[in-house]
Design a protein that fits this description.
78% of the residues lie in helices and 3% in strands. It is mostly helical. It has one domain: MetI-like fold (Orthogonal Bundle), CATH 1.10.3720.10. Strands 1-6 form a two-stranded antiparallel sheet. It has a two-stranded antiparallel ribbon with strand order 2-3. The longest helix has 38 residues.
Length: 575
């Protein structure tokens, strides 16, 4: 019988490690290399004109969906590989997970000038802009999927691990038969969230300015931003209606079928009262052509991979040659690490030279801006938890409520908060708090969904037999939350809180600095500082503010989120 394992959790040491210092200096080196490449880009670049005609919206929507799909496939591959390595190798985990914390928390728009200008220096303008847009969308999609897969691997029940060991599965079979099915439900819900997060940064990915260089791509995001910049509310509404239609179509034809399919991997001893349903999934499951031609072709792919790994395991290598190959790999690995270390040290030194140019007043401004953004992130996270936990449990445990609320939540999560920013400005700019209130609300609107979707995934994964047990014992609502819901949700809450806070840091550059109707609105914050440094092509200030943010995120993650992750692994694992 399954139970929630309660054991004393002893968090590992949370102080800054050598890996954290390496990450900070490595980030500085990469930024410096990008800045050096950016100096060779032409000073004036202009993109194509964005038409605000309504008939252009279908084509723009297709272009944006194509970029989102490319970024999502890249995010899925990255999540599976990165999460697997971090969960399976403790030595790699000590570097990979702090690095992931930093990457998902640092505003991606602070890296976009470096990425975009670096690509522009070595690639044609149009291709570089497309690739940079996909990379930017990827950085808004990958992190929560990676955290979800990593959390699933580290909290997988012991009976699944023992079954894989008894059947002597090789690593590939263990991944395909046990680990991927167990993580499927969380991956699908986080995929929905990742796609919604991609919509959030689509406006920034498809139209962007670095000094006098204007990078833009035709798409739904550039349409919405151009309409908002021109103050054309009719075009903004037309773009939002098109976006909502696209979201509804994706919900019906992609996400609902995937949720209905992933429900079969849920660990429970009795079937739920009302499993997720999808009319399109039912239609496909009754397709003769799909059943007899397409599915058999796809089933051959994992079977061939199984045979490949089986033959590889059956071939016993000659001991001497194995030792020689191992020695050669070790030497090659040492040479690679030394080369990367030399390059990283050179880049870090040059970045330090660049930072020396910053006066003391700029560093004081960076410190105050960092504190202001930290306060907004904290407020946004607390407000998110107050409503997402009860609503997420309702959607995850009540199928009738899910049928009604799930489409509404997906539509609300996918509408870019940046598209609603003009409305918030007009309504709340002269209210108490002014732009501070507006920027905090924009952070909240862009990041609360990470927490909500993880709560839904956690509530959906609670086995039906455990719910029936609480009903048979006639536990009160308080006891049910204390003994079942909150302990079962804790790993998902930690993952959601990490990605939500990271998303809030990430959204700071959009929330604290905006251009609407030809006017610029900004408030004190590290996001606004990064945006101003980007617009003025002030690379020392951009580098200094980004590195200060990286250092703050590393400290917070080590002191808070890493400890909570260890507790979720050791105390609140489903057994």
């Amino acid at each position: 019988m399954r139970r929630l394992l309660f054991a004393p959790a002893i968090p590992r040491k949370a102080a800054l490690s050598t890996g954290d210092v390496f990450i900070i200096f490595g980030t500085a080196a990469l930024l410096y290399v990008g800045v050096r490449l950016a100096l060779h880009v032409p000073r004036v670049i202009s993109g194509p004109d964005i038409s605000l005609r309504y008939e252009a919206l279908p084509w723009y929507a297709l272009l944006s969906i194509g970029r989102m799909l490319g970024a999502y496939l890249l995010s899925l591959i990255f999540s599976l590989v990165y999460g697997y390595i971090a969960a399976r190798r403790k030595s790699a985990e000590r570097v990979l997970m702090p690095l992931l914390d930093v990457l998902q928390s640092v505003p991606i728009l602070s890296f976009l000038p470096v990425v975009l200008l670096s690509l522009m220096a070595i690639l044609p303008q149009g291709f570089a802009a497309e690739l940079a847009a996909i990379v930017l969308i990827f950085t808004s999609q990958a992190w929560n999927m990676t955290f979800s897969f990593y959390q699933s691997l580290t909290t997988m029940p012991a009976e699944l691990r023992e079954a894989a060991a008894i059947f002597r599965f090789n690593p590939w079979l263990r991944l395909r038969v046990a680990e991927l099915p167990f993580s499927a439900l969380g991956l699908v819900w986080n995929s929905i969230m990742s796609w919604s997060g991609g919509w959030f940064f689509l406006m920034a990915a498809e139209i962007y300015n670095v000094g006098s260089r204007d990078f833009r791509l035709p798409g739904l995001g550039s349409y919405l931003q151009t309409a908002a910049g021109a103050g054309n509310m009719h075009a903004v509404m037309a773009g939002l209606v098109t976006l909502i239609l696209v979201i509804v179509a994706l919900d019906q034809f992609v996400w609902r079928p995937l949720l209905a399919w992933a429900d079969k991997f849920k660990m429970e001893m009795v079937q739920g009262e009302r499993p997720p349903r999808s009319w399109f999934y039912n239609l496909l499951s009754r397709s003769f052509f799909l059943e007899h031609y397409i599915l058999p072709a796809f089933k051959r792919i994992p079977e061939r991979i199984d045979r490949f790994f089986q033959r590889r395991n059956d071939n016993t290598p000659i001991p001497g040659s194995a030792v020689d190959r191992k020695g050669k790999r070790s030497i090659a690995w040492i040479v690679l690490c030394v080369a990367l270390g030399i390059l990283g040290a050179y880049g870090a030194v040059r970045a330090g030279v660049l930072l020396v140019r910053l006066p003391a007043s700029s560093w004081a401004t960076i410190g105050l801006s960092l504190l202001a953004t930290l306060l907004r992130v904290t407020v946004a996270l607390i407000v998110s938890m107050l409503w997402t936990i009860p609503v997420g449990v309702m959607i995850g445990t009540n199928r009738r409520a899910a049928d009604f609320l799930q489409p509404i939540v997906q539509i609300a999560a996918a509408i870019p908060a940046t598209a609603l920013f003009p409305v918030l400005l007009l309504v709340l700019l002269h209210a108490p708090g002014g732009l501070n209130l507006v920027s905090t609300l924009l952070m909240l609107m862009g990041t609360q969904w990470y927490l909500l979707f993880n709560v839904i995934a956690g509530a959906s994964a609670i086995p039906q037999d455990l719910r029936d047990t609480t009903a048979l014992l006639r536990l009160s609502r308080f006891e049910r939350w204390r003994t079942l819901l909150l302990p079962a949700l804790f790993p998902y809450l930690v993952t959601g809180a990490i990605t939500s806070s990271g998303g809030a840091w990430n959204a700071s550059i959009v929330a604290e600095h905006v251009v609407f109707g030809g006017q610029t609105y900004a408030t004190m914050g590290v996001g606004a500082l990064i945006a101003q440094a980007t617009g003025q092509a002030d690379y020392p200030l951009l580098l200094g503010s980004t590195l200060a943010l990286v250092a703050a995120v590393v400290i917070l993650n080590r002191r808070v989120w890493r400890r909570l992750y260890r507790i979720s692994e050791e105390k609140y694992r489903m057994e």
